[in-house]
Amino acid sequence: MSEPVTLVIMAAGIGTRYGGGVKQLEKMGANGEIIMEYSIHDAIMAGFDRVVIILREEIAREFGETVGSRIEKACARRGIDLAYAIQRREDLPGGRVCPEGRTKPWGTGQAVLSCRHLISGPFVVINADDYYGRHCYENMIRFLHESGGKQEGGKRPLELCMAGFILSNTLSDHGAVTRGLCRVDGNGYLEDIRETRNIEKRMTPEGRVYAETDGEWLSPDREVSMNMWGLPVEFMDILETEFGKFLDAQEARGEEKKLTEEFLLPVLIGRLIIEQKVRVKVIRTDDRWFGVTYREDAELVRNALRKLIGQGVYSEDLYSDL
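Below the sequence we write its predicted structure tokens.
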């Protein structure tokens, strides 16, 4: 019997470029569904056993009042365990104390760590405000069942996986975005990931898409990470250890770093690859990603979901087939 697999949804982000409101709670579907509900639906259909939603305290009540009960009913209908975790700045390993004046969250690495008490098997991490496509969930759960995480008593690197999207399928029409640019070897394993800001969509006179960042041309066909990771439960131990090291390093780097720098999952995994502590299988997908970086993106997301409903990928009543 395969180990149960959990979907972990990071919904605690602030979304500074969205321009007001809580973008994770923006109504997108035919009946006011938010993006993460489509992710939950796809994960349930793919065979996930549990859903954990990471929130920050400021939006937990609004989440419960708007969509929480709808998600809870849908999960209960299929016998899916649903749990919540709160990402708190003060939740630091080893009794460490949050620096006075720190207002920013600690980033995606600490977000995942905030649900460590709820994870007992392999899990997939996603962003709440990103739509990934249903095939990703099917492919990632298959990999997690087959890989088993650690090998040979832990002597070899942990086996992780990552959804690899095509850059041109992830760009916004309304401004610059940040993407994890990937270098993948001939066997489909991640060699390097580089968080790259200010990537903008451009068009050639012939109408072909390309991308550039600060004057540097980027191939629109290269693979990028959209923060969808498949991780064995043992990764939590590494995450806690590395977060402690990150915090200790901040102490030596000055006050500004302590107040602003974030512990980011892609940056950590990139370093762990170099240190040969993990291997990351890139599961390439041609599905079109969409999400809400800017407020203007919201209508594009609504249109994309309407199109998927029209194609029969989803019902207007999203949960009717569960």
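Confidence is low (pLDDT under 50) at residues 16-20.
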